[in-house]
Design goal:
- About 45% of the residues lie in helices and about 10% in strands.
- By secondary structure, the protein is an alpha/beta fold.
- Strand 3, helix 1 (about 60-70) and strand 4 (about 75-80) form a beta-alpha-beta unit.
- The longest helix is centred in the N-terminal third of the chain and has 18 residues, at about 90-110.
């Protein structure tokens, strides 16, 4: 049985015995979309570890290779979102190129894609006129539509800092929605994911904010495919889901409660647009296939065991979750290094990563346990864990 020596908070370490479950089979070509749910994985970017400038931060070959992996599993890609470190290391100029390259790749392989449009080329911590915010949105939406992708209208830090009322949100969103050529996905990102988005939709009270958002959705229903909400509150999502117009989808962004939200209840269900689907892609794909076939027992079994892993990855500070997503990609051999844009790999401790390793094994997310062990050991050695082992 495979074993690795892992540290614990009291300064000691122990031998962890991997469960060695049979890894889920990988698809070899682009799979058909799921029938019962629309499922997007918000995809990470693979950093160029040898970058010496702000304009050479992405390893394009490996980044696109990972998107092909997601498409091969039947998942669609949500591109240039916060999982790709948008606004937290990835600049708009790089995001533009990422969008262009990914959309072209999606067309070549027949994969589903939607791309994030925001206002992140405006400086943080400044206030802007509503007209300037609209123009920023328009620039990014135009780039995405010209590339040939559906738009995800991301929450705007500039709007959160500058708006003075719910009417300001309606003015900005209304102007953009009137112009889009195809229905978009709205994006409500809670402040646990980005503290600079506190009070979005014009209120710090989530119920009031929801009503303000719903008013915009109802007014522009024909321009909205759906809304993704990332509040880590399943009851708020269910409440809003039941209040949406019949033509507007709910996309769960709840990385704590996604299995039950996707399964749904007697009234309805959520589709998926999740960062955790990047990290658990093979398991999620298999489980969604079970859901398509009406096999709820296997769907629940496969999905539910991933929840402790996801809750660990998305624990506070939640915005550091990208580190765990990239770490899983490294463990599973999708990239040869554990480096991130802007050095974000340093935002989680060795204890956090060690527990993540255990939970990934228990969730059947490690595609090759022996490879995962081989890749985990150098990180442990750098942290001095090998010295503990020698002493013992």
């Amino acid at each position: 049985m495979s074993t690795i020596y892992l540290p614990v908070p009291d300064g000691t370490a122990f031998h962890y015995h991997l469960e060695n479950k049979e890894p889920l089979a990988k698809s070899k070509s682009t799979a058909a979309p799921f029938r019962s749910r629309t499922a997007y994985a918000a995809a990470h970017v693979v950093a160029n570890p040898f970058s010496q400038s702000k304009r050479d931060v992405i390893d394009w070959e490996l980044t696109l290779h990972y998107r092909r992996h997601l498409w091969s599993l039947g998942l669609s890609v949500a591109e240039a979102m916060d999982t790709a470190q948008r606004g937290m290391g990835l600049q708009w100029e790089d995001a533009k190129e990422l969008i262009t390259r990914s959309v072209n790749e999606a067309k070549a392989v027949g994969g589903g894609i939607a791309c994030g449009a925001g206002t992140d080329h405006l400086r943080d911590d400044e206030q802007f006129s509503l007209a300037a915010i609209c123009e920023a949105y328009e620039e990014q939406v135009a780039h995405i539509e010209q590339a040939g992708s559906q738009v995800i209208l991301m929450a705007s830090r500039a709007l959160a800092a500058s708006a003075r009322s719910p009417e300001d949100y309606e003015l900005v969103y209304g102007r953009i929605l009137k112009q889009v050529s195809k229905p978009v996905i709205l994006h409500w990102l809670g402040d646990m994911f980005d503290p600079k988005l506190a009070g979005y939709w014009g209120s710090n009270d989530l119920d009031e904010a929801m009503e303000n958002c719903l008013a915009i959705i109802r007014k522009y229903e024909n321009k909205i495919d759906g809304i993704k909400i990332s509040l880590l509150d399943d009851q708020k999502e269910i409440k809003m889901r039941r209040l949406l117009p019949a033509t507007v989808k709910m996309y769960t962004g709840d990385d704590f409660n996604y299995p039950s939200l996707i399964e749904g209840d007697e009234v309805g269900y959520s589709h998926a647009l999740l960062g955790i689907f990047d990290g658990i892609a093979s398991v999620a794909s298999s489980a969604l296939g079970d859901l398509d076939n009406g096999n709820l027992a296997d769907y629940r079994k496969k999905m539910n065991v991933t929840v402790p892993l996801s809750r660990h990855i998305f624990q506070a500070p939640t915005y550091c979750y990208k580190t765990g997503i990239v770490f899983l990609a490294y463990l599973n051999g999708h990239q040869p290094h554990f480096r991130m844009v802007a050095g974000a790999e340093s935002t989680r401790s060795i204890l956090h990563l060690s527990q993540l390793f255990q939970l990934a094994d228990q969730a059947n997310v490690l595609a090759d346990p022996e490879l995962a062990i081989k890749r985990m050991k150098p990180l442990l050695q750098l942290a001095g864990v090998h010295q503990m082992e020698a002493v013992k």
